[in-house]
Amino acid sequence: MVETVSGMRIALPPAHREFQERLRTWLAEHVPPGGLPDADTDEGFRAHRAWERTLHDAGYAGLSWPREHGGAGGDLLHEALFAEEYERARGPVRITRPALRFLGPTIMRFGTPAQQQRWLPRMLRAEDIWSQGFSEPEAGSDLAGIRTRAELRDGRYVVDGQKTWTTYGRFADWVFALVRTGPAGGRHRGLTCLAIDLRSPGVQVRPVRQAHGRTGFAEVFLTGVEVPADQRIGDHDDGWAVAMALLSSERGPDAGGPVRTEQRLLALAGQVARELPADQVAAATRELGAAAARLHAYRAHTHRRVAAGWQGEPAGVESSVVKLYSSELDLDLVELGVDLFGDRRLAEGSAEYLDFWHSRAGRVYGGTAEVQHNVVADRVLGLPR
Ligand SMILES: Cc1cc2nc3c(=O)[nH]c(=O)nc-3n(C[C@H](O)[C@H](O)[C@H](O)COP(=O)(O)OP(=O)(O)OC[C@H]3O[C@@H](n4cnc5c(N)ncnc54)[C@H](O)[C@@H]3O)c2cc1C
Q1: Locate the Acyl-CoA dehydrogenase/oxidase N-terminal domain: which residues (predicted)?
Q2: How far apart are the C-alpha atoms of 314 and 47, rounded to whole Å?
């Protein structure tokens, strides 16, 4: 029987089709109709934690994670179907997203059995919220420039330095940090990954106010923080390999992405139909049509990557292509809305206002657009450096 995943008609295996139908019903019955309070506030974060617990208890957290780690034992197609249906149902933002998409899978690959047992089930139940501590004031695109130092003394790392742009850092319990254990200036050699408990003495978390006014982001200051050596993930001085695997998972396919873009496109099309003077509609419709064609291509790419991942192929350089393509499409859609309707589309706190800022952030997090252009030029097109 033919069903859809990522908007394309493919034959879904019967078990996946049943899963999709069950999921649709569950989401229709459980997604909070008016959404949840803003996840960047204390009250909102608590509500999102409780929602994550609801998802977990219903069997929808860690769909592709093995059962031994508390997951549902499914596969990447289950994850893709979930991502798509969840966005269609307008489910709340996932505060466990970094854990589910890339921190947990990296611990599965590089962590010891004891670490996996200790951390993974609690991640899935949102008992512990995990954040990513890679970026520093002097190390973003140039990740090998990391300066936060960790000295190994008597079975403990003593960590000093600063992390920044830590998503949900204000509320997180743990940070998955990349630190320097080798000589200063050693670039990608002499780095190590540590799981740091953010309740440890010497940790100071300072919220960062973002352009849209929300404050879930944080800077994390580490002063003489003691981290037991059994919280090292991967080998001492071999953190670069762990970090690269993590970033590759971070850029893995997100089947929910095209659904979100489609929702934005349809909302804008609705506004054009309702509000634009008749003599401007034809030109606006041409722009919307061009965006719809790009959305179709974005979906097709995403679908191809989901299928490749399902068949066990690692996420390759195509992630850079899709990230570039989707972030530019999202930005252009927001710009089109502003061109057509001006600032009145950007009432503070509205969905369009948040989209305006998120579309800019989309060209920065997980590797900036300029860096992705370099990757495509180098590894896809083979252009000289
Ligand atoms: C919404 C959001 C969430 C984030 N969450 C996290 C998080 O949870 N944890 C975390 O560790 N980090 C996080 N980050 C940080 C993110 O990873 C960095 O912002 C990103 O890697 C860029 O680093 P930077 O900000 O230091 O900019 P820089 O690297 O200083 O770049 C500045 C400018 O120079 C350009 N540039 C840099 N190098 C090159 C080059 N070689 N060629 C051409 N142009 C170049 C960049 O494209 C950019 O335009 C987040 C960022 C955002 C926006």
Answers
A1: 14-127
A2: 35
